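Continuing from the previous page of notes. For each protein in this section, the sequence appears first, followed by its structure tokens. Read the first protein now.
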Amino acid sequence: MQSRGGVSFRMCCTKQRISDAHNLEGYTSRLCASRQEKDRFIKRVIGLPGDRIEVKNGKVYINAKVISEKYLSEAPNYNWSSTALTPDGIVPEGHYLVLGDNRNNSYDSHYWGFVPKDKIIGKAVLRFWPFDRVGAIDPQPNY
């Protein structure tokens, strides 16, 4: 169990950036993380093992390449780097870096660190909030 600042968690995932090589294909970068075994968070997988992640000037960079994030309603208004978590900034083997879609108010990896693979507990397939957007989560997002 990964812990930073006393936080431990479990996660469930969807919205893809995870490949076959990591045995999580189809877990489109959304995760449920649990602080205490009863809680769950849904987050987006941004960093895979071996990646370096940086948030700067309202953009997210994976290995120095900016990523398109059409799903965000607001760009991040903070600067952050995975070097805050490890000296070389590399996501360790067996771990992932996750960020919430509400980047400016999200309790995620930039706060509590990397997520161990064994804490990914499922795949988010249904949106139930907000009520005007209840329905299935697109398994092939267009971003």
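Done with the first. The second protein uses the same format. Note its length before scrolling.
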Amino acid sequence: MKYPCLFISCGLVGVGLVSPLLLQAQQTAPNMVLILADDQGWGDLSIHGNLSVSTLHIDRVGREGAAFTNFYVCPVSSPTRAELLTGRYAARSGVRDVSEGGERINPDERTLADYLKQGGYATAAFGKWHNGTQYPYHPNARGFDEFYGFCSGHWGNYWNPLLERNGEIVYGDGFIIDDLTTHAIEYIRQHREQPFFVYLPYNTPHSPMQVPDTWWDLVEDREIRQRATDPEKEDLAFTRAALALTENIDWNVGRVMQTLEELGLDEHTIILYLTDNGPNSDRWNGGMKGRKGSTDVGALISLKAGKEELLARLTQPNDTPMTGAELDRVPRTESYMKGFAPFPLGTIRLDRQVREITLQAVDIPGKRVMDLFLLVLKRVN
């Protein structure tokens, strides 16, 4: 199934260009799946040119959706997660570190899950939380109805590990990433009839580098064709383990996507994929300087890819029929400027007069994320 890129902004009315027109969001709320990798570098994905790894499913999310190539995160885990959940700089939400209380989001902050839950969404998190362990910092107190995983920033065992489910101590089943994904898939199946928000913060390729044999066998003798900026600092066994864990993540992303397609939800679900910081070792990262924990660009840049369906409706407030609409493209970087000239994309012609037009965002081949535009519609009588 081809997923469209996001090229329509529901905020275009606010720019004051087409005040007679009203763009309304689709009435049925889309599902959301937010996947976060842990210590995965920008260069650990084949979509970024790494010839020593295969991440077909993650690549598909970016290629059939939008890849945010200038998307930056924090140097370490907790601040990135806090900013993702609150939409605010980490320090403003109280997060300044990864331990000793510095990882906790202030109790008076509202998270994305809080808002979505208020809007009727079923909300669940499966994986590494790392924004506080006890109430009121626990995920069940931050808008998530369901939580399965662990709350600390590091876990020492990835096989049948001791975890928790909504505050109750339980044991995982098998390799942790596979297990987390299985729980997420079960939740999606159970809540297919209502909008859901599933947060999947994986805890790999963070150390310990415990790789299932199935995945290690694929990389053990693989040639590492691209090396770290300083090859003498690279531990090839560690690099192979990181790439094996990344390929395992990719397989699990594919499981989620397949489930959505089987349930007929793929065209009504937004999928976002990103990583929390730079790589946790010296390995190929596109020639960028830095790794996890530093403020160099190699530690801060992340892929943020999204696959989404967006339907929007253009209506006439004065109820006057129209025969079509002129469509202009406006770069977001210019949308606040006066006197710029929108780029005309053409005219939508209709065979009869109508009072509203419904648009569907479509994939535009060859466009990069920096070409993210507003679409401006002007009526044709």
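What the second structure shows: The helical segments are 56-64, 77-86, 112-118, 176-190, 213-219, 236-262, 297-300. The first helix runs from residue 56 to 64. We return to this in next week's lecture.
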